[in-house]
Amino acid sequence: MARSAVALGRPRRSAANNDADSRVPRYLQVASVLRRRLRDGIWSVGEKIATLEELEREFGVARVTVRQAIELLQSEGLVRSQQGRGTFVTNTIDHRRWLQLATDWESLISGIRENVPHPLPAGTVGTPRVEPGEGRPAAAYRFLRSLQKRGSEPFGYARVHLARDIYAKAPKQFASRAALVVLAEMKGLEIARAHQSLTIGSADVETAKLLGIGLAAPTAEARCVVTDADGVAIYVGEITYRGDCVSLDIELRGPAAAAAPRRR
Questions:
Q1: Which of 20, 135, 146, 204 has minimal CB crowding within 10 Å?
Q2: Pair 66, 186 in one domain
């Protein structure tokens, strides 16, 4: 039996109705709320979710909007609709989060050492964004685009600007290995700083197509800037990961710290 919004104690007014002026299509808003409920375990794998009628009433949208939202989640492999029976959960987001993002240089390099990039045409090439405090821009850059795959399934879309003089030292290696690994192993190159930031985003048309996910599906946007001993930003990378495969775990306080006596 499907669990309705009322039975679950959720308010009938949802996030899809909170911002009437939002430019985000309504079906994407509905899909976002449903995706969050799957992540939170409101419906388990194999369980039937709320009916189209219930979702239509809850979100205050047309039936076609609900269908579009369900079709989007179905394209992401999270649910499956069965004619005459309803829509059932086929996967959970948390169970798919196998990619652990590193929080230090050594872990980052060891985690991608065996990665083989799948090159893409360079496409439109622009100047990399180098923020204040990230270093001085190089005189010229080489732009690389590639996909990261697990088996045959893409999970990351990388756009990398490499200082042209650095790229010229090992073009074949940069074409066949992760650029950060090549930099870490390059003799005579002193890396002074490597900084990575992570933001949460949503897939645009290009990213959705390349990663095989729905438009506006959650993504993790990792930005990494590496500077040499002269303060030049020799690597500026933007990598977009599928949000359903990424997790970030940070130990805030270990058992030893918890057990240690407090100083008075």
A1: 20
A2: no
Q: Radius of gyration over alpha carbons of the chain, in Å? A: 22
How many angstroms separate the CA atoms of 219 and 76, rounded? 13
> Do residues 19 and 148 share a domain?
no
Residue 58, both tokens: 């809850």
Give the integer Cα–Cα distance in Å for 246 and 97: 5
Contact (CB, 8 A) for 86 and 127: no
β partners of residue 226: 194, 235
Mean per-residue pLDDT, 247-256: 75
Same domain, 102 and 90: no
Percentage of residues of the chain with pLDDT beyond 90:
56
Structural tokens at position 164: 């042209």
List of long-range contacts for 119-123, beta carbons under 8 Å, 24+ apart:
119/144, 119/145, 119/146, 119/175, 120/145, 120/146, 120/147, 120/210, 121/145
Which residue range is the domain that position 69 belongs to?
A: 15-94
Nearest to 219 by CA among 200, 238, 247: 200
Cα angle value 160/163/164 (rounded, 5°): 110
- Segment 187-193 shows an average pLDDT of 96
